[in-house]
Amino acid sequence: MSGRRTALTVLAAAASAAAAAGVWGIGIERHLYTLRARTVHVLEPGSRPIRALHISDPHLAPWQKRRAAWISRLAALRPDLVISTGDNMGHPDALPAVRAALGPFAGTPGVFVHGSNDLWAPKPRNPLKYLAGPSRHHPTTAALDTEALDAFLRDDLGWTPLDNTAAVVSVAGRDIRFMGTNDAHHQLEDLESAHRALIDLPDASLTLGVTHAPYRHVLDAFIADGADALFAGHTHGGQVRLPGYGALVANCDLPAKQTRGLSTWSHGGRTVPLHVSAGLGHSIYAPVRFACRPEATLVTLAPRR
Fold this sequence. Notes:
The protein is of the alpha/beta class. The protein is 24% helix and 24% strand. The longest helix is centred in the N-terminal third of the chain and has 27 residues, at 2-28.
């Protein structure tokens, strides 16, 4: 009898812990928006630092006014550059929320790439499947108004699109070369087109690689093309992390330990900084974050030591 009582006690404790974790992850932590600060030393000695705000994965829906307002207030930081690594929309009617969130950045130099949730609306799925490995695209998912989104980002904000291409952007009085890809998670990347666009650009002292999903082959290609630092999103930092352990999954082939924050990536004898944003949101069908606060990051590009 005592053994049965012990088992019931253990089960009750486990159920209580799971319920508490659910309440925290669903009801509290996913709303605890956090601004991180990181520094990467990639500029020529003596250069003036550049403050780049990295925003990713807001997955906005019309009712998420708190998230949109928090993002909009980041404009008060007056960054020199905004890097958006995609998944802005999380609902077919999300464009007004995107406008409210990003409108205050009009006139600030910026670059952007697409994630799949700039192209297709999310679809209901079992959230536990996320733990089984990288998710897959469902061809029956409704198309989003990507054209209207791009018109806002490009024409209203003045940001430069980087899907499978390269461009020079003037930032804080200096020219920076950027190369980028569309979402590699759905095989939309075209690295050859990005490479050809890059080699047609004039030389610059700084080249940055920007992508949504940080697949290894994309990061390798960026480094091979001379990128000095890499920026990505997509992983949500794992979205559900175990304290003391970290992310369980990366939703791509990136090592799970690199699913958020600043690390490095090496290829062909070169090692460069890699910043992966844990992102600001989640699918409307998986409204939880645990031990992984939603975040944006102010990355200071500083002179090399």
